[in-house]
Design a protein that fits this description.
With 413 residues, the protein is an alpha/beta fold. It has helices at 10-14, 25-33, 53-64, 66-69, 84-88, 143-147, 165-171, 185-190, 258-266, 312-322, 348-360, 407-412, and strands at residues 37-38, 41-42, 96-100, 106-110, 113-117, 152-154, 177-181, 198-201, 206-209, 212-217, 237-241, 246-249, 271-275, 330-334. The strands form 3 sheets. It has a 6-stranded mixed β-sheet with strand order 3-4-5-6-7-8, with no helix packed on it. A 6-stranded mixed β-sheet has the order 9-10-11-12-13-14, covered by helices on one side.
Length: 413
């Protein structure tokens, strides 16, 4: 994938290693030829609204008040499942098991193979060790303990909370293949990943790894690790199947009608891992009245926040679209709980997703960090975060059905 390209400037040589590298040579030629690259940048399948700069500034005083800041982190330590490695040592009885490892990092065991999505074990999602959002709980297992048994590492895009240089450099020691969106391979090669272990895909392209088919599917987001913000690497969601089981990882994305097409082509899914955190209340659901799974003519309000993340309600809608418009499979909420990346309360994404899924008749998984589960036998949803979060001023909504007490969580809290 490497080759001759434009000469490297002295400024590029001085930038931090965590910024990664620019695509050049044959990799750049593939980017320029991509149908998803136009006018010097990768583009979204559906345009995203642009935030009015004054809106964020006007909202800062309210969001920086103490009463607004306190709910954005847990009041007590986040419980981490204590026996993750022992649980993973036992084969998945159903052939499919998922383990949420925090934020968007998920280990999927499918058909006897292991796929690790968006591994971020770093203390901060930042290019710098001294600044940037810091994780709010420890990783449930050492990354080195997972690396030996991995078949594939899948990256959704190159933002720091999804592509972590120290984690990649640890995983280079494994035998895993790295499946990444087009252009992202430049970063990984820069950090020591051999070119023959890279599978770099455009949307709708697939690769085979150990009997698994991994397909890069569209997403509505953006990319960038450096200071210039040029959209030179692609972002993607992913569909993975062994021919029997099917899973979907959303990466980061705003809601768009394309989820229905992804579901029609690659679903229905036994489980979806859906981004439901880091949104803004100023970001309206432009599709609230649209029929699930159907194309629509909604145009984002140009004064709204960019449509590059989903609210919990949009995340549920995306899952239903992926399942053909009706409840099915299991929804695993991701992209919440580990880093404080938005102004909403820390526990709100999990809480809202659980309640919305229940109202829709959709099975929702609510594992603690590091707690493996099999979608074929998903435990009943349980709001474990209520034990450690700042209680909302209006209290918690009634949770039907009444869940049995979880003494293990109460003891850890």
């Amino acid at each position: 994938m490497t080759g001759a390209g434009r000469p490297t400037s002295r400024l590029v040589k001085l930038r931090p290693a965590a910024f990664g590298a620019d695509p050049v040579g044959a990799r750049l030629e593939r980017i320029l030829a991509s149908p998803n690259y136009r006018d010097g940048a990768f583009v979204n399948p559906v345009g995203a609204g642009v935030a009015a700069s004054g809106d964020l500034i006007r909202s800062l005083p309210a969001n920086l008040r103490k009463d607004a800041r306190l709910p954005r982190k847990p009041a007590r330590p986040i419980p981490v499942h204590p026996t993750t490695l022992a649980d993973l040592a036992r084969p998945a009885a159903s052939g499919l098991r998922l383990t949420w490892l925090g934020h968007s990092s998920v280990l999927a065991e499918i058909g006897g193979r292991r796929v690790l999505f968006d591994p971020v074990w770093g203390e901060r999602c930042s290019p710098f060790a001294f600044a940037g959002p810091r994780r709010m709980h420890p990783a449930p297992v050492p990354l080195s303990a997972l690396a030996a048994g991995l078949d594939a590492v899948v990256i959704s895009h190159d933002h720091y909370d999804h592509l972590d240089m120290p984690s990649i450099m640890e995983l280079v020691r494994s035998d895993a293949v790295f499946a990444v969106p087009l252009g992202v391979g430049a970063h990984l090669e820069h950090w020591g990943v051999p070119a023959d272990r890279l599978r770099e895909l455009d949307w709708h392209e697939s690769t085979e790894v150990g009997g698994l088919t991994l397909t890069a599917t569209p997403a509505r987001h953006f990319c960038g690790r450096g200071l210039r913000g040029r959209q030179q690497t692609l972002w993607a969601s992913w569909a993975v199947t062994d021919g029997t089981h099917r899973v979907f990882h959303s990466g980061d994305t705003g809601y768009f009608p394309g989820f229905a097409a992804i579901g029609a082509d690659h679903g229905p899914f036994d489980a979806t891992m859906i981004q439901i955190g880091a949104y803004s209340e100023k970001w309206p659901d432009a599709h609230a009245d649209c029929p699930p799974g159907q194309p629509c003519d909604c145009v984002p309000d140009p004064g709204a926040w960019p449509d590059i993340h989903m609210t919990p309600d949009e995340g549920l809608r995306a899952h239903l679209d992926l399942q053909g418009g009706t409840p099915g499979g299991v929804l695993l909420p991701i992209h919440w709980g580990t880093f404080n990346l938005a102004f909403h309360p820390w526990a709100e994404p999990g809480e809202r997703t659980m309640l919305a899924a229940h109202d829709a008749g959709q099975t929702c998984a609510t594992p603690r960090v590091g707690e493996p589960f099999e979608p074929a036998a998903t435990p009943p949803a349980y709001p474990w975060w209520r034990e450690i979060a700042v209680t909302p001023s209006r209290g918690w909504a009634p949770w039907p059905p009444l869940a049995p007490a979880r003494e293990d969580i109460a003891a850890e809290a």
